Structures are given as C-alpha cells and as structure tokens.
C-alpha cells in the first residue's frame, strides 16, 4: 500500500495538469534560495510567475529558512531582483518566526542570548524581545572572565559567520539552566555557494551547541510546522488549497507534507530528481515523507499555465 502511494509522487507538472492544479490552489508558498533566486540572481521568469499569481488573486508567501536578513531587507532584495509587487507580510522568514515564537508562544520573561546575524537581531528588536549577544567582548576576554547576564532566559542560534568559541561557550553556560529555552532558527546543514563551494548552515551551528549543552534545540524553520502556523494564524489559509514550492527535499518538501500541503520540487537548487526518485523508491518510511507530489525544472514552468489566463 505504501509503495502504491509513493509511486504517485514526482509527477511532472505540465500543460493542462498544471493549469488545473493552479486553479484549485488559492495560496502558493515559495522557498527563496534555489527556487525564485540563486544568490543574487533571480531565476528567469520567477518575478513574472509571482506577479501573475497575485494578479490571479492567489495569496503568495515566501517561506525561507535563511535568517540572515530582516523582512525589510528581503523587500529590498525582492525589489532589486525585479519582484515588484511583494509586500512585507508576504515574507515569512525563520528569523521573523523565531521572534514571534519567543514573544507569543514562549512568552519569554527575560533576555534572549543570540548567536546570529542582522536578520535575527532586527526581527527580535522589532518584536520587542530583549536581546544580548551583540556587544563586543573586551580584547582577550575568555569564558573564565567574560560577563554573563543573569536575565538571559533563552538562547537562539542561527547562521552566524562571525561565530567564535567564546560565543558558543557563553551559550553553553546559559543552557546549563534547564529553564533556559533553547531555539534554533532552522536546521539547514549547509548552503551552496558560488563556484561549487559550500558553507555550514544554522543546523551545523546548532548541532555544535546541542552536543556541548547535551540538549536538543526547538527548531523554528522548515520542516517544523511553526512557520505554516504563523501564516495560518494570520491569514487563515487552507492547507488543501495551498501549494509549497521548494528545492530541498528534507526541508521544503517534508515541511509541505507535514503541513498537509501539496508539494512541488523545483530543480533549480539543492535537491536533484534522482534524489527525489531515490526517496520515492526507497522502503524507508522517513524517506517517503520527502517525496514531492510534483516536479518542475523551474518555477518558470508555471508561466504558460498562468499566461493562458491573461
Ligand atoms: Mg532553498
């Protein structure tokens, strides 16, 4: 039975099939990196796809694990890359959702020690969540003599290309308190970089801290459902009428499936068709949760189906 279900995955979305599917969906969730842009270059046709979906009355959200930018900074990037009709509430980042979680779910009573970059700090400031972690240490400071803040009640770890041993050590000290919350913006293991290079993602940093603290972080980003809950609670979208488009099977597709949303793998990013078929043909039940319903070469494949309605 399970095999029969899996064999339905990875269907190529083309022509009338694609048009009919889009007709049944009121909301489209896009991952960003590897789907609508790669680094600082828009995927050809992606701005037109977003614009046409909106013109057709669809809700469009950008659900990204990339926590390095605030939503305002994302808006600048959208505009620069030719996405003209994106507004702040369309952007649902792991940095923003971490701030919402800390303020509205955890209702943290105290400060949050942050390992992260601008996006995380800005979103926490804007949500009114008190933060520490950005103050420069005095030269030569060590874990033996650096100050610790007794008001810290949570540790949040995200992508931080200035991570150093002292930051990790301070976070470990805070996490010795079992009542101190431990959150990670996302669990992404690594990110593709130009010329075939890669860099460690937030998940790698969180893993270092999890090992040292002997605790597991609560992960906010995909594949956790929290980011979808943020959208549902604010905009009341219906999972059955929603489509998730991503490039990473273990985050985007798993996220969509666990939220009860149909999923599309775009082959412009990290995961390959071979990997998707490997999950589909595997007997591993965990792998089955990473099988996309549909596959497109690029989001530009949506254009003919949307163009015809002009
Ligand atoms: Mg991606």
UniProtKB/TrEMBL annotation:
Family annotation (Gene3D superfamilies): HAD superfamily/HAD-like
Cited NCBIfam families: HAD-SF-IIA, PGP_euk
Catalytic site: 31, 33
Q: List ligand-binding residues for Mg(2+).
A: 31, 33, 247
Asked whether the keyword Membrane is assigned, the reply is yes
What does the record's cofactor remark say about binding? Answer: Divalent metal ions. Mg(2+) is the most effective.
Which PANTHER family does the record cross-reference, listed alphabetically?
A: 4-NITROPHENYLPHOSPHATASE-RELATED, CHRONOPHIN
| Membrane topology of this protein | Peripheral membrane protein
- Domain of life the protein comes from: Eukaryota
Molecular function (GO) terms listed? Answer: metal ion binding; phosphatase activity
Q: What is this protein called?
A: Pyridoxal phosphate phosphatase
Entry keyword set? Cell membrane, Cytoplasm, Hydrolase, Magnesium, Membrane, Metal-binding
The organism is Conger conger (Conger eel)
Which residues bind substrate per the record? Answer: 191, 222
- Name any cofactors this protein relies on: Mg(2+)
Lineage of the source organism? Eukaryota, Metazoa, Chordata, Craniata, Vertebrata
Hydrolase listed as a keyword? yes
């Amino acid at each position: 039975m399970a095999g029969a279900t899996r064999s339905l995955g990875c269907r190529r979305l083309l022509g009338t099939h694609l048009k009919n599917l889009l007709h049944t969906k009121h909301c489209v969730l896009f991952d960003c990196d590897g789907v609508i842009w790669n680094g600082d270059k828009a995927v050809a046709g992606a701005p037109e796809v977003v614009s046409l979906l909106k013109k057709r009355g669809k809700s469009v959200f950008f659900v990204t694990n990339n926590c390095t930018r605030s939503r305002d900074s994302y808006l600048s990037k959208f505009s620069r890359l030719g996405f003209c009709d994106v507004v702040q509430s369309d952007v649902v980042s792991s940095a923003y959702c971490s701030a919402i979680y800390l303020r509205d779910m955890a209702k943290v009573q105290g400060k949050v020690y942050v390992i992260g970059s601008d996006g995380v700090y800005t979103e926490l400031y804007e949500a009114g969540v008190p933060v520490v972690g950005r103050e420069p240490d005095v030269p030569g400071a060590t874990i033996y003599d650096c100050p610790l803040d007794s008001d810290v009640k949570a540790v949040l770890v995200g992508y931080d290309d200035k991570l150093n041993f002292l930051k990790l050590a301070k976070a470990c000290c805070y996490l010795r308190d079992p009542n101190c919350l431990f959150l990670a913006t996302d669990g992404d293991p690594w990110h593709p970089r130009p010329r075939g290079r890669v860099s460690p993602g937030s998940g790698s940093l969180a893993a270092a801290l999890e090992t040292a603290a002997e605790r597991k972080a609560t992960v906010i980003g995909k594949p956790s459902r929290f980011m979808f809950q943020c959208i549902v609670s604010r905009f009341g979208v219906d999972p059955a009428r929603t489509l998730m488009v991503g490039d990473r099977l273990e985050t985007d597709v798993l996220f969509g499936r666990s939220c009860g949303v149909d999923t599309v793998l775009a082959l412009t990013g990290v995961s390959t068709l071979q990997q998707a078929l490997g999950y589909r043909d595997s007997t591993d039940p965990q792998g089955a949760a990473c099988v996309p319903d549909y596959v497109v070469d690029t989001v530009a494949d949506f254009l003919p189906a949307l163009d015809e309605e002009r």
